């Protein structure tokens, strides 16, 4: 497989030592097999997700992403920007498109960037890692690296909101995107294409302010996975992964349920299928252990 290089924006939650660093570890493990090099953007900053919408203003929020794009253009010239975090991808891609269609915003961002000695060309594509896998590697390409097929596992692909709306993945349905299902099948596991909660919001923005509402939404996501006989849930979003995993004990206490559903990243599935160890695939970072994946990794 031909070597590919991308300008990498890890984002706050997925960086080393952060809450979703297992995403970063498993992505790097997966990319090692796929001969993908991720060149981290030097001195990148937060994209302003969530808090950027809370009163900071439109231009400051978009300028945070403009700075990352400008740094990428300066240090990783000619390389497309790739993010693993759904929120980071969404914020960066939104900024790029807004600047393309609004000269006032673009000029305002340029003025702010000039204070830091930067200038924005805004000519760099912004992609999610799943787009790279689908469009540059392909499902057959993913399948070709499999050494330990995930046979016997049934996995519910939970897409969530941000990789589905407003941009979505090219060629996918907004109501029933199938790319996660196809990835799951590419590594030898059984998917749940009829999983009806795959695009429901996990209530991430409400997790702190109105936890009862968020947890009710999470409960439905997990119940649907159990109803379809899933062994685990896989997602492309750090916030979805965290929310659906870490609140299961709270939901059990409130509703009398007995949830113990592992929630993993697609990159962990691919990494294990490629013969990487449980540690290399960052399964040691799970709150709810993915025991069946660990067993496969240890064979």
Helix fraction bin: 40-55%
Mean pLDDT: 94
Structural domain count: 2
Number of helices: 12
Shape: globular
- Indicate the structural class: alpha/beta
Major sheet description? 4 strands, parallel
What is the element string, with H for helices and E for strands? Answer: EHEHEHHEHHEHEHEHHEHH
User: What is the correct CATH architecture of the largest domain?
Assistant: 3-Layer(aba) Sandwich
Q: Biggest sheet: strands side by side, in what order?
A: 2-1-3-4
Low-confidence stretches: none
Annotation, overall tally of beta strands: 8
> Which fold name is given in CATH as the topology of the largest domain?
Rossmann fold
What can you see in these coordinates?
The chain is α/β, with parallel strands linked by helices and 299 residues long. The protein has two domains: 126 residues, Glutathione S-transferase Yfyf (Class Pi), Chain A, domain 2 (Up-down Bundle); 150 residues, Rossmann fold, CATH 3.40.50. 44% of the residues lie in helices and 10% in strands. It has twelve helices and eight strands. Strands 2-1-3-4 form a four-stranded parallel beta sheet. The protein has a four-stranded parallel beta sheet with strand order 6-5-7-8, with helices on both faces. β5, α7 and β6 form a beta-alpha-beta unit. α2 packs across α4. The radius of gyration is 19 Å and the shape is globular. 49% of the residues are buried. The mean pLDDT is 94.
